[in-house]
Predict the structure.
Amino acid sequence: MADANEKFLGELLKKSGNNECADCGAKNPEWASYNIGIFLCTRCAGVHRSMGAHISKVKHLKLDRWEDSQVTRVREVGNNAARLYYEERVPPCYRRPNQDAPQVLVEQWIRAKYEREEFCHPERQNQYVSGFMEGFLMKRGKEDARYHPRKFVLSEADDTLKYHVKENKDPKAILRISELNVAFAPPKTGNQNSLQISFMKDGSTRHIYVYHEDPEVITTWYLAIRCAKLHRLQVAYPGASEKELLSQLTRDFAREGFLWKTGPRHSDAYKKRWFTLDNRKLMYHDDPMDAHPKGEIFIGHSSEGFSIKTGVPPGAKDQGFSFTLETPDRSFLLSAQSEDDRAQWINVIQKVIQKPLTPQDATVAARLVRKRTASGTMNIFSSTSNFIGLSSRLQFTRNKMGHESMVK
Ligand SMILES: [Zn+2]
């Protein structure tokens, strides 16, 4: 009997929709929830189990014994039908996790779907789609590295995210929602429920780190920032497609890790730095959680003189797994931790160099340039041509809306 059911489950798995995890899309699911009637990957099955059997009952397709009635349920529902029901009203700004997504995002997506049924009952999404949110988050101190409770206030109408040291006093900082980036930061902070918020301040990037002990609360903040960004973009660029705008809400970093880097003179010693590649911006820091990068390199297009290659120029020191980033103004000599690490860094940077610039990229470049020029060191960016993405018509709309334009 068990064998017949196992075989039948194998047949069901081949049906369209069932061959990918119902919650994250990972290929070849090995588990199923037999009361909901869906096929799941190992990670998502673990999340289902953690919600309790009153929400979801999971079994392994091969290792567990299946009753006829349980197989029938999975046959009657399946991933496609379940998705139509449980994902009927997912707001566009919601980040649907894929198999590489941070754990807390996957967990909260699954709980939102089956436990809170937020996408069957849109009024339950008010906390993140309403455009306003306030509450306390634990924020890492800039100097002392300890976390302190700070009151945060998000206002889509004002395009601001503020935080207060003292609740009734002026905010310590006012961030523009449209100009900040937010990413989950568990590998760096060691806390699952943590976010890294990055923004430009006085011509350079500033990072802040926050967490909340409740994974639902931190995810709600993340989603609220995304939703506010989307709504503002929709107003600023009425002609843009939703897909185009969604790609600009939040970015995970393409790559982070320690590299060794020389100073401006190639005879300088290599120093260990924490590198973060954020879209076209390659930042380096003394410590992974520094509030400010020590330096920021804007990576332009290959046609403007940017390139990356293995090794170092003749006469320069090669420290193990070296590679060279050429910019119009300087060669950066870098060294990775291993052959594989170097290959991955070169790969992600190469992709950036080959990608045409968008107006948003130029905004970032212009602001970094301003800083470098002001301090009299160097101009790291020389051209604002070669744009694709949002058209100049949209750029014009943005200016007309009264936003500050950095694109010259
Ligand atoms: Zn999954």
Q: What stands out?
A: The longest strand covers residues 132-140. Residues 21, 23-24, 26, 40-41, 43-44 surround zinc ion (CB under 6 Å). The chain has three domains: 2-86, 124-239, 255-392.
